[in-house]
Amino acid sequence: MCVRVWKSIARVPSGIVLVLLMAVAPMAGPAVAKSKPKVSPAAPLPPILLKLIVDIDADPTSGPPPLKVELTGDVYDSENIPGLRYEWDFGDGSRKEMGVKAVHVYKKPGDYTVILRATAPGGRTGMDQLDIQVEGAD
Q1: Residues 24-33: contacts with CB within 8 Å, 24+ apart?
Q2: What burial class does residue 71 get, using C-beta atoms within 10 Å of its C-beta: 0-12 exposed, 13-18 middle, 19+ buried?
Q3: Long-range contacts for 72-79 (Cβ within 8 Å, ≥24 apart)?
């Protein structure tokens, strides 16, 4: 018995590689052996696979005021996504900043949540958040 194997590889925008293997073992008879298998179109990817995977790195994440925090954003597979836009929200009511890196000074004690939103030119988005603790006077 002869078995035919087809392999198809596709890379989707999020950087995930899909591999499809199909094996067909023909049944007895010349009509079946000569026919080609029917291939259905791929189903659309779930929306979760289209989201950008975003990560924030901060140094330091806590300390007394004024606390100067250096922030760096990262998007998984960003080298294959030209034109990414990064927007920082520091959680203290200050003006938002753009760019993959940011430096922010927290002047008052409190707990703050930094949010980084990344947007690709095609409209795909992703976000991450990180808590910053500015210690109060004891």
Answers
A1: 25/1, 26/1, 26/2
A2: buried
A3: 72/100, 72/101, 73/100, 73/101, 73/116, 73/118, 73/128, 74/100, 75/118, 75/126, 76/14, 76/15, 76/52, 77/14, 77/15, 77/53
Q: Do the beta carbons of residue 121 and residue 83 sit within 8 Å? A: yes
pLDDT at 122: 83
What is the mean pLDDT of the segment spanning 119-124? 90
Please name the CATH architecture into which domain 51-134 falls.
Answer: Sandwich (2.60)
Q: Where are the domains of the chain?
A: 4-44, 51-134
